[in-house]
Amino acid sequence: MSHYVKFTYERARPDIAPFDALAKVNACSRKLLELRLIGVDSNGVGFGNLSVRDGASGNFYITGSATGGLPELTPTDCVRVVAFDFAKNWLRYEGAAIPSSESLTHAAIYESDPSISAVIHCHDSILWRTRLDRVPTTSKAIAYGTPEMAYEIMRLFTVSDVRSSEISSWQDMKAAL
Known about the structure:
Shape: globular
Radius of gyration: 15 Å
C-alpha cells in the first residue's frame, strides 16, 4: 500500500481495457504538466490527478498514485474505480496502478452531482491565494484522501453554491487547454 493513500483498496482485476477518454485525459494532462499545475515536487512526490466518469455508471477512471509527472499516460497508469464506501474508507478498482490518494474525493464529487463528467485536481498557488475563503472551501482541519474529506465535499454541494461558483478561473483554464 502507498503511504500517501489513506484508504484501503481491493483490486478486482489486474488491468483495464483502453478507454475512449484516455486521449483527452492525456491532452489535458500534458497541458497541466506544461503549466506546472500537476507534476512532481522538489521532494519527488507526484501531485495532481485527473478523472473521468465512465458513462452513466457510478464508475470512473482516475490517474494512478504518483503519476502527475508522467508526460504520457497509458492504461497501466490509470485505474477504473468500480465501487467505494466512504464509511468503510474503502474502494474497489480495476487496473495495474495504485489508485490516486484523492480517489474518494473524486468519488464524492461524482456522487454529489451526476452531471459532472470529469474532475481535474491541480495545484495553483496564485489561485489558492486569490480564492481561499472567497469560494466554498473545505475545512482546513480535514486531511486529504479521508472519508472526512469525502463527506466535506458532499457537504459543500448541499450547503453552498459550489456548482455555480467560479472556484477556478475556468474560462482561463479552458482557454489554456
